[in-house]
Amino acid sequence: MEAKLTANEMWYVTVLEDITGATVKDCIKGSDEIIFVVKKGDIGLAIGKKGVNINRVKKVIGKKIEIIEHSDDPVAFVKRLFHSFRVEDVQMSNGDSNTVRVYVDERDKKMAIGIRGKNLSKMKMLAKRYHSIEDIIIA
């Protein structure tokens, strides 16, 4: 996946990499947040002990930040997209490798979907961008 970054996104990448030492694979500027996809194994560097690194980056950038750890495995990547929620299982749909079913604890379903589907839409966009997944179904 070859991402084309704007000048602003390249600046965000530089800030995160300089402060944390993590390698950024992608940066997506949303309306109210910046989403970084970091190299597999670099999530700990990006966040830092007790969140010190991510908080320093937030202070410099002045926006909400989300960091996702990349994986070449589509199921593992989708699990990482849902890291904030109690995920019971993630499965590729039988016969349709472009659909993933995510089994989320009943207590977290509303938050996983988000207000007006915002969280789910963001996760679908990232899953499609990296693994050509057309749909994510929360079960």
Describe this structure as you would to a colleague.
The two termini are 29 Å apart. It is built from six helices and six strands; from the N terminus they run αββααβαββααβ. The chain is 40% helix and 27% strand. Strands 1-2-3 form a three-stranded mixed beta sheet, sandwiched between helices. Strands 4-5-6 form a three-stranded mixed beta sheet. It folds into two domains: 7-69, 2-Layer Sandwich (GMP Synthetase, Chain A, domain 3), CATH 3.30.300; 74-138, GMP Synthetase, Chain A, domain 3.
Features:
139 residues; alpha/beta; GMP Synthetase, Chain A, domain 3; 6 strands
Topology:
Blueprint (H helix, E strand, L loop, with lengths): L6 H14 L3 E6 L3 E6 L4 H5 L4 H10 L2 E6 L4 H8 L5 E7 L2 E9 L4 H5 L4 H14 L3 E4 L1
Parallel strand pairs: 2-3, 5-6
Antiparallel strand pairs: 1-2, 4-5
Helix pairs in contact: 1-3, 4-6
Summarize the structure.
The protein is α/β, with parallel strands linked by helices and 139 residues long. It has helices spanning 7-20, 43-47, 52-61, 74-81, 109-113, 118-131, and strands at 24-29, 33-38, 64-69, 87-93, 96-104, 135-138. The strands form 2 sheets. A 3-stranded mixed sheet has the order 1-2-3, sandwiched between helices. Strands 4-5-6 form a 3-stranded mixed sheet.
